[in-house]
Design brief:
This protein is mostly helical. It contains 4 helices and no strands. Helix 1 runs antiparallel to helix 3.
Length: 52
């Protein structure tokens, strides 16, 4: 899966809401970790690591 596919899945899980709650984030924690791992493994944020 591509990062965009994971992000689409995450947004679909949240549905059409005005705000995302802590509980909603916790329910999707596994998917969020997967997205994070995918971003790190692709080197997507290597240039920003130096700044932070």
């Amino acid at each position: 899966m591509q990062i965009r596919d994971y992000m689409t899945k995450l947004f679909d899980a949240f549905g059409d809401v005005e705000e995302v709650t802590r509980e909603m984030l916790l329910e999707q924690a596994e998917l969020i970790h997967t997205i994070s791992d995918k971003c790190q493994s692709t080197g997507l944020f290597l240039d920003s690591q130096v700044r932070f």
